Amino acid sequence: MLKTIIFDTETTGKNEAKMIEAAWIQLDCINPFATSSSFNKRYNPGKSIELGALATHHILDEELNDCPSPESFELPQELGYLIGHNIDYDWNIIGQPNIKRICTLALSRKVWPTLDSHTQSALLYFVDRQNARDKLKNAHSALADVENCAFILEKIISRLNVTSIEELWTVSEQARIPSHMTFGKHKGVAITDIPRDYKAWLLNQDNIDVYLRKALEVY
User: Fold this and answer.
1) Which among 172, 138, 148 is positioned nearest to 58, based on CA atoms?
2) Dihedral sign, CA of 100, 103, 43, 45?
3) Domains with residue ranges and CATH for the chain
4) pTM score
5) Are 46 and 18 in contact (CB under 8 A)?
6) 48 φ, ψ to 5°?
7) In this predicted structure, what is the pLDDT of residue 218?
8) Are 69 and 46 in contact (CB under 8 A)?
9) What would the mean pLDDT of 144-161 be, rounded to a whole number?
10) CA nearest neighbour of 6 among 39, 46, 45
């Protein structure tokens, strides 16, 4: 199996976000599910942390004074797959490396489509209600989030009954193609029911999400 990590970052916030913490756990096998080495490191972003981000991860600017720059961050060598909850956010933060991505957010929506929330915290309450509060005490620190993601991933893999990381990636890619609009004046409308002129307008936008583009072209 190609080297695979479950990955998460914490950042300065929404505006020109910089990484302040990165963590991963190596996934060695999906059947049976097995992990091994881990990584956790903080970085000095060279800019102030926004209050909204601070209220989420509780990492203070002054705690990062002696940390290295995020530009020094490197992924493991010979990495084949990057796994995470809404993994594209973290992938963008580290510069969009040419690595296959597996999104546990998309997979959870496929496996449990009727849940009212698919945040990582909500999923923990769904799959492990008795222990969720303890697991979430350090939520939004990068390593704790990775550990919680690994726990949810194991449940997802069990439900999907996949036997290889490549098969899991294929299912993730399919799950990431939306069936309904998630924004705009047609939010909640099935993509098959969106007016043709609106589809054409969206397809002409330069910044359209690649998976939404696939949906618009297919449906």
Assistant:
1) 138
2) positive
3) 3-176 (3.30.420.10), 178-219 (no CATH)
4) 0.90
5) yes
6) -75, 145
7) 84
8) yes
9) 95
10) 39
Closest by Cα among 81, 39, 54 to 170: 81
Q: Give alpha helix (H) positions in the chain.
A: 51-57, 87-93, 104-111, 120-127, 132-135, 142-160, 165-175, 196-203, 210-218
- Residues whose CB is less than 8 angstroms from the CB of residue 98 and which lie 6 or more positions away in sequence, other chains included: none
CA 197 from chain centre, in angstroms, equals 32
CA of 186: how far to CAs of 36, 182, 195, 198, 217, in Å? 45, 8, 9, 9, 17
Q: What percent of the chain has pLDDT over 70?
A: 100
Amino acid at position 70, single letter: P
Half-sphere CA count of 211, side-chain side, radius 13 A: 15
CB burial of 81-99 (b: ≥16 within 10 Å; e: otherwise) equals bbbbbebbebbebbeeeeb
Cβ contacts of 80 within 8 Å, gap of 6 or more: 1, 2, 3, 4, 99, 100, 165
